[in-house]
Amino acid sequence: MTTADDSVLQVENVTLRFGGLVSLNDVSMSVPRGAVSAVIGPNGAGKTSLFNCLTGAYKPQEGQVWFTPAGGTRSQLVGRTPHKITHLGVARTFQNIRLFPALTALENVQVGVESRQKSGAISAMLHLPRSTRDDRESVAEAVSLLEFVGLPHRIHEVSAALPYGDQRRLEIARALGTKPSLLLLDEPAAGTNPAEKRDLERLITRIADTGVSVLLIEHDMRLVMSVATQVTVLNFGEVIAQGRPEEVQRNPAVVEAYLGTATDDQEASA
Amino acid sequence: MRLSVLETKRLAACLGLGLLLAVITGPSGSQDHPSSGIRGSLLDVRVVDFLLFGLVVWALAFGLRRARQTEAVSGPTAQLRQTVRTALDRRGARPTSYLAMLLVAILVPLALAPAAQLSLFLDIGIYALLALGLNVVVGYAGLLDLGYIAFYAIGAYVTAYFTSASALPIHAPFLLNPFFVFPVAVAVAALAGIILGGPTLRLRGDYLAIVTLGFGEIVQILARNSDGVTNGSRGAFGVPGLSMHLGPLEYVFPRTKALPYYYLLLTILVLVMIAFSQLERSRVGRALAAIREDEVAAEASGVPTLRYKLVAFAIGASTSGFAGVLFATKQFFNPETFSLQASILVLTIVIFGGMGSLFGVVLGAVVLQGLAYVLRDPIPFIGFQVADADRFIYFGAVIIIMMVFRPQGLVPSRRRSREIKLSEQGLGHADAITGASEVKP
Amino acid sequence: MAFADQFWQLTVTGLVIGSVYAVIALGYTLVYGVLQLINFAHSEVFMFGAFGGVFATRALLPSGNISATESIGLVLLGLGIGALCGGLAAFALERTAYRPLRRRGAPRLAYLISAIGASLFASNLAGKEFGRDSVNIPKDLFDYNTQVFSVFGARVSKQDLVVFVVALALLLLLDRLVSGTRLGQGIRSVAQDSDTASLMGVNVERIIVMTFVLGGLLAGAGGFLYAMKFNASFTMGFIPGVKAFTAAVLGGIGNVRGAVLGGIVLGLVENYGQFFLGAQNLDVVAFLVLVLILLVRPSGLLGERLGRAA
Ligand SMILES: Nc1ncnc2c1ncn2[C@@H]1O[C@H](COP(=O)(O)OP(=O)(O)OP(=O)(O)O)[C@@H](O)[C@H]1O
Ligand SMILES: [Mg+2]
Fold it and tell me: Measured between CB atoms, which of B289, B311, B418 is closest to A158?
C-alpha cells in the first residue's frame, strides 16, 4: 500500500448508486504520485463511473476523494463542479472521445490552455493588451502541446475530420493544456491500431516523465503491463485487487473475474 | 409519366402551400365574418395564380432532385448551386463586403426622403444593434432569449428617469446628459440580465427561453400598471435629445432630423461589430463555442460553463439596454413599444441573417426591415402590399422557412454552419440547450 | 375587505381557471415527455381551438329562445369543434415546424426557434382572418352568470360549473388514456427511451404525431372552455400558454398527474396572490411562481416522470 504522503489522489469508501443499481461499492484506492497507474476490470465494472466521480461529473452518495497537487494542499473533490476540479489539477479524456467537433485541433487545445487564463470578455472586446497577450500565449502553448503529442501537421484541421487515433491524442493534448497534476485517461488505446498503440505507450511514458501522474483505464493488458507501476482491479463496482501488475495478474480473484465475463460475453454473443 | 406516392404528396404539399399563400396575401376577415377572408382569397380567380405558383415550385424542386440524381456534379444546375453555395458560405469574413456595406450605409441615406431616413434609424439601425446583441446570446452562446426587448425597455425607461424632469412621474435627484446615461443603462440592463439568468441558466437551456418569455411580458405589464413610476400606458414624453458639450465641441442633435442620429448609430454599429468580432476570436469566444458543441467536455477542460453563459447573456442584455437609450433620446415610447413581437422580430433578424455572423445579422436587419418598409405601400404594377399589422405573419414564416431549409442563415458564420452540419450527423450539439445535465445521475 | 372574506370566492375562481390551465398543461407535458422540448406554439393551438368553438356556436345558434337541450348540445358541439381545430392545428404544426427538423437531426435550439416562428405566424394569421378584436360565445347560449349554488358564501355560476366539470372530465379521460391504452403505453415508452422503444417495434414517428394531436385536442377543448369564461382573440394564447407551462413545470414536467396538480395549484395561488398584489398583477404572480419553482425545486412537485428515468 502507498501512504498518504506520496499519493496524488486518495479515494475513500466511494459508493455510487443509480436507483437500485450499485455502480461503485465502497471503493478505496490511492494513486501514486509521478507514476503511471491503471484501473482495469471487465465491461460494466464501474471504471468510467469511478472517473466520473473523481472529476465531478457524478456525485457519489458516499465517500471522499482527496487530491493533493504537487506542492499544493490537500482538497476534497466530491461536491465540486467539474471545471473547478480541472482547475485544481485533475484533467481527463473520455472513453467515447469528446472533442469540440467543429473547432480546429489548435482551438481544441487552446480551450484547455485558456482555462488557466484570466482576461475577460471586456478586455477581449476592447482588444486590451492582456487579452492579446493571453491569445499569443495560448497559441504558443497549444502548438507546443500539439507537437508534444505528435500532431504538428494537424494544427488547422477541423477536429471532427481527424483520424480516430489522432483524435485520441488531440484529446490528451487538450487535457494537458490545463496543466494537470493528475491525468485520467479512459481507454486511450481503444480503437487504435498496433502502431498507434506503441506511439501511445511512448506518449504516456513521456507525460509521466514531465512529472504528471497518470491514471489510465485500459483493456489492453500488454499496454498496462508495460507502462503501469500499479494496477487496481474493479469488478461489479468493487476493488478486488490492487498492487504491482505482475502480482495482480497472478491473483486468482482477478483471473476468475476475467474468465467469468469472458464466458458471459460468449453467451451474450451466441 | 406516373408520379410516385412521395412525389404526389410533395405536389399536394406545394399546392397546399400555394393556397396558404393565397390566404396570407388575400383579403382579411373579421370577427363577424370569420370566413370571409378565406373565402375571398380562395373563391377568386387569383387562386389560380397561387396554384400555378405551387405547381411551379414543385416542378422546379422535382427537376432539381432529378438533376441531382442523374447529372454528374459538373452539370450546369449543380454547378450553379455549388457556386451560389460557396459564394454564400464564405462571405462574412471578407473585408470587401464590410467595406461595401459601410459605403452604402454612409451614402444611400443622403438620398432618402425624411420619412425613410427616420425609418432607417428606428427600424433598421436600432434593430441591427439589437440583433447584434441578441446574436451574442443566440449565435455565440447557443441560448434562446425571448424577452430580449425587456432590456431595451429598461434602457429606455432608465434614460427617461435620468435625463428628464417631466417625462416620467419620478426622476433622478440629479439629471444627466443622455451620453452619461449609456453606462448607467448598460449596467442596469446587465444587472437585470444577471439576476434573471443566474438562477435560470443552471437549468436546462429551454427554461431560459420560457423564463425570458415571461420576463418580457412582466416588464411590459409592470410598465403598464405602474402609473406612478412609468406613466402607465401614456408613456414617456419629452426625453431630451442627445447633446454634446465637450469643451469647445458643442453639438445638439436636432430631434426633428433623423440623419445625425443615424450617423451616430452607424458609428456605434461599427464599433460594436469590431468589439464582438474580437470577442468571438478571443478565449471567451472559443469557450462559448466549446460550450455549444459539448458542454460536458467544456467543463472537463476547465471552462466554467455557467459563468460564460451568464456573461454572454449579460452582454446581450446590455447591448439591448444601450439601444434603449439611443432610442429614447429620439422617439416617444410607451409599454406597447416593448411587445413580445418586438423581441421575436429581433430573433427573426438574427435567424434570417445567420446566427453567429455579424455581417449576416446586420444584413438581416437591412433586408427584413427594409422590405417591411417598402411593402407598406403597394408595389408598382403588382400592387402587392403588406399591412403593418400583417408583417408578423411573414416574419413567422421566415423563421420556419429558415429553420427548415437554411438554419445557418443567409450569410452564415463559418464556424456556426460547420457546427450545425456536424451536429446533424450526431457530432456535438450546436447549441447550449441540452446542458451538462446529461451525465448527472 | 379581509382575505378571509374573499377566500372561498378566490378558491372557486382559482379551481375553475386552474382546471383549464391543467388541460392546456397536459399538451406541454406530453410533448415534453416524448421530445424533451417546450412546444412554444402550443398556445396557438389553444387559440385555434377557442376560435373554432366560439365561431361554431355563434354560427349554429338558432334565433329566439333556445331550450336546455339545445344549449347543452351547442356547448358540447363547441367543445368538439374546438378540440378538432386544436387537433388539426397541432397536426399541421408538427408537420411543418417539427418533422422536417427531426428528419435532419437538427439541434434543439432549432426546434425552439421554429416553434416560436410557428406561433408568431399562426397568431397573426388568425388576427388577419378572424379580426383583431375579441369575440365572445353568444349571449343566449345559456344563462352563464346565474348562480347555481354557493360554497361558504362563494357563488358558483353555471359557467364556472360547466368549465370545471368538463375540464375534470377531460383530465380523467386523458389519465385513463395514458395509463390504460396501447397509445398511452406507446407514449410512455417513447418518453422513457425512444431508441429502445423503436427497437421494441414502437413506431416512434407515429407516437410523436399522436402525442401532438392528443395535446392539441385537449388544448382546443381547453381553448373553448377558456373562451366561455373570457373571450377569444388572436393574442389570447400567450398568457394562458406561459401559465400552463408554469403549471407543467410546477407539477414536474413530463408528469401527467403533475400537470393536473400544477394547474390547480397555480390557479389557486395566482388568485390568492392577486388579492395581495392587485388584480392587474394577476399575471405577475404566475411568473413569480415559475421563477420560484425553478429556483427551489426545478423537478416540480411530483417530480419529472415520463421523460427521464427517475
Ligand atoms: N448515467 C448512468 N445511469 C445509469 N446507470 C449508469 C450510468 N452510468 C453508468 N451506469 C451503470 O454503472 C455501471 C458501470 O458502468 P461504467 O460505465 O462505469 O463501466 P465501465 O467499467 O467503464 O465499463 P466499460 O469497460 O464497458 O467502459 C454499469 O452497469 C452502467 O450501466
Ligand atoms: Mg468505461
Answer: B418
**DSSP assigned state of A63:** E
Contacting residues of C for B407, CB less than 8 Å apart: 106-107, 110
Closest C-alpha among B396, B37, B148, B351 to residue C41: B396
Contact state of B400 with C133 under an 8 Å Cβ cutoff: no
**Confidence category of residue C105, pLDDT binned at 50, 70, 90:** confident
Residue C73 lies in a domain: yes
Least confident among B70-74, B100-104, C90-94: B70-74
Report the residue count for chain B: 441
Is B85 within a domain? Answer: no
Beta carbon of A42 within 6 Å of any ligand 1 atom: no
Q: Which of B36, B201, B404, B423 to mutate to test the interface with C (most CBs of C within 10 A)?
A: B404
Give the residue from B436, C230, A208, C109 showing the smallest Cα distance to C243: C230
Cut 0.90: pTM above it: yes
Q: Is A261's C-beta closer than 6 angstroms to any atom of ligand 1?
A: no
- Domain boundaries of chain A, sorted by first residue: 1-89+180-270, 100-177
Query: In which band, very low, low, confident or very high, does the pLDDT at B83 lie, cut at 50, 70 and 90?
Result: low
ipTM of predicted assembly, 2 dp: 0.92
Are residues A184 and A47 in contact, defined by beta-carbon separation less than 8 angstroms?
A: no
- Asked if residue C46 is part of any domain, the answer here is yes
Instruction: Quote the minimal CA–CA distance from B253 to chain C in Å.
Output: 37
Quote the number of domains for chain C: 1
The pLDDT tens digits for A171-184 are: 999 999 999 999 99
Q: Domain of residue B191: give its range.
A: 114-387
Q: Is residue C307 part of a domain?
A: no
**Mean pLDDT on A109-133:** 95
Each residue of B131-184: pLDDT tens digit? 999 999 999 999 999 999 999 999 999 999 999 888 888 888 888 888 889 999
Q: Answer whether residue B440 shows pLDDT above 80.
A: no
- At B182-197, the pLDDT tens digits run 999 999 999 999 999 9
Contact C90, C45 (CB under 8 A): yes
Measured between beta carbons, the chain B residues lying within 8 angstroms of A112 are 301-302
Q: Would you say the CB of residue A45 lies under 6 angstroms from ligand 1?
A: yes
Residues 6+ apart with CB under 8 A from B105: B266
Cα dihedral angle (B294, B298, B303, B307), rounded to 10 degrees?
20
Mean pLDDT of chain C: 90
C-alpha cell at C134: 375579441
Residue C28 located in a structural domain:
yes
Residue C62 DSSP symbol: P
CATH of domain A1-89+180-270: 3.40.50.300
Sorted by sequence, the CB contacts under 8 Å of residue C251 that are 6+ apart come out as C25, C29, C257, C258, C259, C260, C261, C262, C263, C265, C300, C301, C302
Tell me if B353 is assigned to some domain: yes
Identity (one letter) of the amino acid at C115?
A
B-facing residues of A in 219-238 (CB < 8 A) are none
Q: How confident is the model at residue C222 (pLDDT cuts 50, 70, 90)?
A: very high
The structural domain count of chain B equals 1
Q: Which of B206, B221, B404 sits opposite C37 (nearest CB)?
A: B206
